[in-house]
Design brief:
CATH topology: Rossmann fold
CATH superfamily: Vaccinia Virus protein VP39
Shape: globular
Number of strands: 11
Structural class: alpha/beta
Order of helices and strands: HHHEEHEEHEHEEEEHEE
CATH architecture: 3-Layer(aba) Sandwich
CATH class: Alpha Beta
Number of domains: 1
Strand content: 25-35%
Helix content: 25-40%
């Protein structure tokens, strides 16, 4: 993970505009509303919820009756999160950090949007998934909206390929960059593992790994996002 690059991207000005761009805009609000409905179905009195890469705390603020905590690398994002999430514990650190005191502690562990792709290698994806699983309680749930390479690229990119050589060839994922319209903010070299690859990673830690398909973001919208929901943690 390139920490300096991320801190330059998620600065104070960007944090102030983040929700309007990616959570409440016409293009984004249907997805965010669907995620809020899912979260409401999982969070019950007594639940403990950790939102990893929590950003501005948008999702956390909708459930003030639940014991919640947030983790994010950007101080600017966390400053905004604290303003609207009274009593929530926020932690300014990386989701790649090993945090032993969180092991088996959280009934819901979420990592929203495509935050897991802000890493430097597939090995770091493995490490992050291991952390998310470790922090989930034995009877808890892990929820991760997925950056699907097929939706990003607009082509039916296969996960496994025929090979003239003995053995199996697979495409683990893609690396992609998103330069915003003003081009002063660039999400550079993000990693998007194949959905099948993410399912396999989570299956190492959970017995049940399911996909949640979102409704169309707009009428007639062809591309439909998916999220991973993992339960029944392996002991």
């Amino acid at each position: 993970m390139n920490k300096d690059q991320l801190l330059r991207l998620y600065d104070r000005d960007y944090a102030a505009s983040y929700e309007e761009k990616f959570l409440t805009s016409e293009l984004a609000k249907a997805d965010a509303e669907h995620e809020l409905r899912l979260l409401a179905g999982w969070l019950t009195p007594g639940s403990r919820w950790l939102d990893v890469a929590c950003g501005t705390g948008f999702f956390l603020r909708h459930f003030p009756e639940i014991e919640r905590a947030g983790l994010d690398l950007s101080p600017a994002m966390l400053d905004l999160a604290r303003q609207t999430n009274s009593g929530v514990q926020f932690h300014n650190r990386s989701y790649l950090d090993h945090i032993p005191e969180w092991e088996n502690e959280w009934d819901l562990v979420s990592c929203m949007w495509y935050a897991y792709g802000l890493v430097s290698s597939m090995a770091e994806i493995d490490a992050l998934v291991a952390n998310l699983a470790a922090w989930t309680s034995p009877v808890g749930r892990c929820f991760v909206p997925l950056a699907d390479p097929r939706l990003i690229s607009g082509v039916d990119l296969p996960h496994t390929l025929e090979s003239p050589w003995p053995g199996e060839t697979s495409v683990a994922g893609i690396i992609w960059t998103y330069a915003e319209q003003e081009h002063d903010k660039v999400h550079r070299y993000q990693i998007a593992p194949h959905v099948e690859h993410m399912q396999a990673l989570f299956a190492r830690h959970f017995e049940t790994v399911e996909l949640e398909t979102y409704p169309p973001a707009l009428p007639g919208w062809a591309g439909r996002r998916r999220a991973l929901v993992a339960t029944r943690k392996r002991q």
